[in-house]
Design goal:
alpha+beta; His-Me finger endonuclease fold; two-stranded antiparallel sheet; 9 strands; about 35% helix; elongated
């Protein structure tokens, strides 16, 4: 039985453990790597299976740069620390990557003239229209006829609504809402209540 030596694993194997050489580079017409070395089993170790692990305790991902995995390296590069908290408090302000960051409290006060306590009180029951309590923050709805930009006077703030209802209110006010929309009556009542 004829055999051949694999140039990768350096093992001598029978010819049925090699693929044919379709590139016509080998004189004998048989590939120089065995089937195992050409398969994904050896490629897996080549793609990072043998890399050293991340230096963070409890992380089982492989090394990416500076002894960290890709996720922890990005955190260290972005925040200067490994915690998931991305904002560092200094002198009463929040900083992110060396730049001052506007917090939710600051944004509510600056854009809508709302305090954080007032926002939490109004959003305690969820969306004012549908009652949904999404995981992400609810939106502050205001009358765009009064203040068309992102900064409002504070008097035109109407309610705290979810993202879906906020888009529906916008469609209702611009006249793009379908006549068969399920919550059309609720939205019309809501707009009349605050504008009326």
């Amino acid at each position: 039985m004829e055999t051949k030596r694999c140039t990768k694993c350096q093992e001598t194997k029978t010819l049925d453990q090699f693929h044919k050489d379709y590139t016509k580079q080998m004189k004998d017409g048989i590939d120089y790597y065995c089937k195992y070395c050409r398969s994904g089993a050896s490629i897996k170790s080549h793609r990072g299976g043998n890399k050293k692990p991340c230096s963070v305790e409890g992380c089982d991902k492989s090394h990416y740069a500076k002894s960290y995995c890709r996720m922890h390296y990005a955190r260290m590069d972005r925040n200067g620390m490994l915690d998931t908290k991305t904002q560092i408090r200094k002198d009463g302000y929040y900083y992110f990557n060396g730049k001052k960051v506007h917090t939710r409290e600051y944004t509510l006060n600056y854009q809508y003239k709302l305090s954080m306590e007032e926002y939490l009180e109004r959003s305690a029951n969820g969306c004012e229209l549908c009652g949904d309590k999404p995981e992400r923050n609810l939106h502050v709805d205001h009358d765009h006829k009064c203040c068309n930009g992102s900064i409002t006077c504070g008097n035109c703030v109407r309610g705290i609504v979810c993202n879906r209802c906020n888009k529906a209110i916008d469609k209702y006010e611009t006249g793009l809402m379908r006549a068969d929309y399920p919550d059309l009556d609720k939205i019309a009542e809501y707009v009349r209540k605050y504008n009326g």
